[in-house]
Amino acid sequence: xxxxxxxxxxxxxxxxxxxxxxxxxxxxxxxxxxxxxxxxxxxxxxxxxxxxxxxxxxxxxxxxxxxxxxxxxxxxxxxxxxxxxxxxxxxxxxxxxxxxxxxxxxxxxxxxxxxxxxxxxxxxxxxxxxxxxxxxxxxxxxxxxxxxxxxxxxxxxxxxxxxxxxxxxxxxxxxxxxxxxxxxxxxxxxxxxxxxxxxxxxxxxxxxxxxxxxxxxxxxxxxxxxxxxxxxxxxxxxxxxxxxxxxxxxxxxxxxxxxxxxxxxxxxxxxxxxxxxxxxxxxxxxxxxxxxxxxxxxxxxxxxxxxxxxxxxxxxxxxxxxxxxxxxxxxxxxxxxxxxxxxxxxxxxxxxxxxxxxxxxxxxxxxxxxxxxxxxxxxxxxxxxxxxxxxxxxxxxxxxxxxxxxxxxxxxxxxxxxxxxxxxxxxxxxxxxxxxxxxxxxxxxxxxxxxxxxxxxxxxxxxxxxxxxxxxxxxxxxxxxxxxxxxxxxxxxxxxxxxxxxxxxxxxxxxxxxxxxxxxxxxxxxxxxxxxxxxxxxxxxxxxxxxxxxxxxxxxx
Length: 557
What we know:
Elements (H helix, E strand, L loop, with lengths): L6 E2 L5 E3 L5 E5 L5 E5 L6 H7 L2 E7 L3 H16 L4 E7 L2 E2 L16 H8 L1 H11 L6 E2 L2 H28 L16 H22 L3 H29 L12 H21 L4 H15 L22 H24 L7 E7 L3 H9 L1 H8 L1 E7 L7 E6 L1 H8 L3 H9 L3 H8 L4 E5 L2 E5 L4 E6 L4 E6 L2 E6 L4 H22 L8 E6 L3 H9 L1 H8 L1 E7 L6 E5 L2 E8 L1
Parallel strand pairs: 5-6, 7-8, 9-10, 17-18
Antiparallel strand pairs: 1-2, 3-4, 9-16, 11-14, 12-13, 15-16, 17-20, 19-20
């Protein structure tokens, strides 16, 4: 053992002098060989966390930093320095050009962070492109993330907090999701656990983009635009949540379900949006009174429960969303607002399984798109007119020189051939003495409108909407417009949701008066009105416009 060792660099500079941290042996040539011990405290802690799980830096650091760390780690510890690496791509301007002061296209990161916040900026960058890809940076994208994701998430929490505070909701440990008899509760919990599994796998694989996108889709499309909207009335239900005889249990399940979704989203989003997620987590649990960690970052990451994932239920609800989306697109095309009830939609059914799945969510569809009836038809001939076009891109890749003759045959298809493809079967054709097997992926099937109906399709799903509006439907549409305008007046007056009002209308044309009188109970129920009257004249009335109707109304508390 040598008492004093000095390591010297090739340039002659002294580098190290710690005799108690270096072992020195002499080989057969009497040349000293030195080896470091671990020269620090907490050696076991270091060993348990080294090498690092992952490291990230710019792609330009491949040799300058990534390799250097490995070289040092091998020399000191006979180990690699890290197990995984993400090499960040370049941040370009919105046109794809490299940012520079000379071109004037550089974005000041500090101004951007001050204006939009770190979480929105980070979420935009990670959800927009994989970290290793070059990013076309556009501040308009951050504004979209703020509005669409963070704005929607905040509004969903605000909705929960508003009614939870009114009802003095308290989270009840031990109440399981299975207690809810409501199908939409079980569906959103199934979607939540499917999301947890997907996001956890993405984070484990160091794929943050694949984690962010489904979180955003869940919040915007599933939680806000579908679950909360379909279940809004359950939160308005005046039945007390604390009743000993079980009244209000459905409302309690709605609160518990929405709370569980919001808390899980806060945890799932926390690695990418650490500040907002922590704030949401804290606010949620102050409202609910649940005893939790001080910070979302100290809590356990969600674990997916396969027993709560119901893929059949998710398929049913997806069909409900798809049908509703098609009907909404038809309403928009005809400029028929959703508040105007319509009588019927026709859905051509390709197999009994699809029919049973749609029937299971029929009430949801009717409520969502405001129609009275869904009719299922098997033979669409004479009901829905369909045409077919070749999928040239796929046919060209697969059949090459046969495409021209094959396309001519496809363009001549009639109802029977189209139905075979829609039902998922193969269609056998002979083209230039060769046998070709077509599937629905080889063609594009288009539905055409028929008199009095609008038709839309997506994939194998087709919907025909009856756009004829009877007088009774017109009256109900007027009543719904009246409710909308009164709700807006309540908001302008600063009323709380539980505040009761009285409503007076000035006489109008016979159709409007009849619409209000025949739907008075419905209007009162939806607007928290104790009474509704029609008077000859109201001098200080508010003037409301509803399309071609001018309505005078007075709302009093």
